[in-house]
Amino acid sequence: MVKYKANVSKLINDIGWKNFSTIFGELFYEAQKGEMKSWDVSLKEFWKVLLLTNLNDNVDIYLEYTFDFASSRCDVIITGKINGVDKIMIIELKQHSRVIDITNKNDLLIYKSSKSSGTLSNQIKRYINFFQAFIEINNIKNTNIIGVGFLHDMWDIKLEEKKVIEDNNDWIVDNLKFKLFIKNQYIEFANYITEEFKNAENSNFIDDFEKSLSIRGIKTIDVIKNKISDKELILTDQQKLFSDDIKYNINSKNAEKKLFIIEGNAGTGKTILIYSLYLYLRNSSKFNNSTHIMARNSTFIRNINSFLNDGYKFKQSSSVVKRKTDNNQVILFDEGQRLTMEQIIKAIDNSKAIIICIDEKQKINYTDEVRKKLIIDYFKAKYPKGIHKSYLLENSIRFLNNRNYIKLVYSFFNNDFIHCEENANIYLYNNQSQLHQKIIELNNNSENLMIKSFKLDDDAKKYSYNWINSSYKMNEIASIYYVHGLEVDYVVIYIPKYIEVKDKNYVEFVDSIKTNRFLTLLTRALKGAFIYCEDEKLYNILYKKLNY
Q1: Cα dihedral 221, 226, 228, 229 in deg (nearest 10)
Q2: From residue 87, how far is each of 59, 79, 99, 208 by CA, in Å?
Q3: Do domains 221-393 and 402-546 have the same CATH topology?
Q4: What digits encode the pLDDT tens for the residues 361-394?
Q5: Domain locations in the chain?
Q6: CA 488 → CA 217, 225, 320, 450, distances in Å?
Q7: Could you tell me which of 22, 114, 365, 430 has the fewest CB atoms within 10 Å of its CB?
Q8: What is residue 249's three-state secondary structure?
Q9: H or E segment at 526?
Q10: pLDDT in tens, 291-305
């Protein structure tokens, strides 16, 4: 979200002559005292650099750019188009005069606050990842993202002794190239910016980024596809907080068993978080050969593995039963509500730690027996000194900019009545011809839409593992068991006649599993849903919800 945007002439004038309450407006009154002090120091240091540049007014400069899924803000972003290539420079401004340490990968460990520390490159790389995910999702070719650190008060002998900064202010961290400028390097930094944006034309990159997010939220496969390092993944602030806590506890010297349970509704990023933890452990020298990520549903595994690199794929959860005890073993389970208690007990008994993602609202099988309470009760009884922690993800990143849709979906299952413009892309039919005609129209007017159909009842009919990537066919109506881990633009749900509904003004089937199935199917969609309902009673309930 753009908080401030200007060309270089306007920015120089604004910082030189205006106060920050005028520049940032509402953001100024939301900011902490520390942030205000930082602006007063760091932005004025950056202003000194801009005075020495020779940028044309086609170049856009953004201050305190905010991502919808992260509360942290990027200090400075500069954009311009050079020879048809969108160039994006991400700049992190720091007041630190000393580093805590220099890591073996040449990163700078610095204080983030009085109580916490972090590495500089990770802060920059996180913002790069946010944009990189957008580039990969939309298959954008002509982009160049640059990460820069400006430590305007830094002069630490350690930097010289360890040769942190190479020629031309190159800063190499873990084989990634950044730029690093320190105290009194105003001219060097200004010359670098000028050269990078020489003869630049205007870039629409940030506008396109924001428009893309308004179309749909974050799709799991787009985030984890072909990733082999946790540093490549984008995480929300909440995901990162939970991830850091789990890493800390796993790496602690405490030898007791450890159990971590991650809960959250559909679309809150459970798979992204657990896969990020898997990549972290898989790439660590201590746990790399003893870390395994698993799920029970074979269709889910085949689908997700088709997007993952060899050596970083999901395994069948049934294999955990045959695994021997390993003091360094870490087992990560996705879709934990689909597991058996035997599998969970084996994993706990034979491992140092297990991490489980679970959503009991997504129990869609009559044989699904796992409950969070059962897991915790077993763990506490068998390992009373063990460490157990639970985490609840709350941000629906799948529905990041389709919040009306998910609000309306959840209102189907309670007494709430939500008024949404145009029914938030939820279409209700009791006539199949009209349903199919609407889907055909939508498909004809939009490119590359992923639309898939399901029914609530069990079905033995099977499709190939790459069925999810095929075009929409109205006669392909899949079994409910294809649904876990699935994300589509539109979901089509067929509900049979005479389905038993309780006598309420919201949706609750007599069969609670079918209630879970209906909710699970609705939460697969990034954009909207088509509901074909033959049952008159249910149709009337949904109609009233949609036309409130």
Answers
A1: -50
A2: 10, 6, 30, 14
A3: yes
A4: 887 777 777 889 999 999 999 999 999 999 999 8
A5: 4-214, 221-393, 402-546
A6: 11, 16, 31, 5
A7: 114
A8: helix
A9: strand 525-533
A10: 999 998 887 888 888
Sign of CA dihedral 313, 314, 320, 326: positive
Q: How far is CA 76 from CA 42, 59, 169, 171, in A?
A: 11, 13, 19, 19
The model's pLDDT over 72-98, given as tens digits with 9 standing for 90+, comes to: 788 999 999 999 999 999 999 998 888
Q: 529 falls in which pLDDT band (50, 70, 90)? A: very high
Superfamily of domain 221-393: P-loop containing nucleotide triphosphate hydrolases (3.40.50.300)
d(CA 179, CA 113): 23
Cβ neighbours of 178 (radius 10 Å): 22
Strands, sheet with 73-82, edge to edge from the N-terminal-most edge strand:
4-6, 60-66, 73-82, 85-94, 143-151, 176-181, 170-173
Handedness of CA 136, 139, 140, 141 (dihedral sign): positive
Cα 29 to Cα 390: distance, rounded to the nearest angstrom: 34
Which residues, other chains included, contact 469 with Cβ-Cβ below 8 Å and sequence gap of 6+? none
> Are 93 and 154 in contact, with CB atoms under 8 Å apart?
no
Return the CATH number of the domain spanning residue range 402-546: 3.40.50.300
CA distances to 128, 132, 193, 311, 515 from 146, rounded to whole Å, are 8, 11, 11, 30, 48
CA distance 3 to 1: 6
Q: Which residues pair with 292 in a beta bridge?
A: 331
Instruction: Kindly report the number of other CB atoms within 10 A of residue 141's CB atom.
Output: 9
Q: In terms of Cα–Cα distance, which of 298, 522, 531 is closest to 434?
A: 531
* Choice between 218 and 251, residue whose per-residue pLDDT is larger: 251
- For 298-353, write each residue's pLDDT tens digit: 878 888 888 899 999 999 999 998 888 888 999 999 989 889 999 999 999 999 99
Amino acid identity of residue 242, one-letter, is F
